[in-house]
Write the C-alpha cells for this entry.
Amino acid sequence: MHHRTALAWAGALGAAGVILGAFGAHALKGALEAAGTRDVWDTASRYQLLHAAALLGFAGWMRPSPGKPGRCAAWAPRLWVAGTILFSGSLYALALGAPRWLGPVTPLGGAALVAGWALAAGAALTA
C-alpha cells in the first residue's frame, strides 16, 4: 500500500470513527443502553479510532522511503483497514441487533489487526 493510500484510509476511518462514536453517545444512547450494547459500540469506535491513528503514523513513516514499500510495510496497513472494517463493523452491527451469526466475524477482524501490528514491527526491523 502506498503511503497516500494509507493516509486516505486513516482519514476515512478516523472521520467515520468520530461520527459513529458521537452517534452512539448521543442519537443512539438510549437504544444502546436499552439493549445493553453501549459498551460494544464504545469498543468498536475506540478500536476504529486507534487504528486510524496507527494508519496515520504508519503513512508518515512510509513516506520518506524511496520506491515501493517492502512486503511487511505494504501489508500492515491493508490488514489494519480490513481488520478495522471486520472488527469494528461487526461490533457496530451486533450492537444494533444484527443476527448472532455475525459474531464470529469480530475475532477474524481482531486477528487481522494483530497480524497488521506484527507486520508493522517486521517492517520496522527490516527497514
Q: What stands out?
A: Residues 3-126 form one domain. Residues 1 and 78 are 7 Å apart (CA to CA). The chain is about 80% helix and 0% strand. Helices lie at 3-25, 29-35, 38-62, 71-95, 105-126.
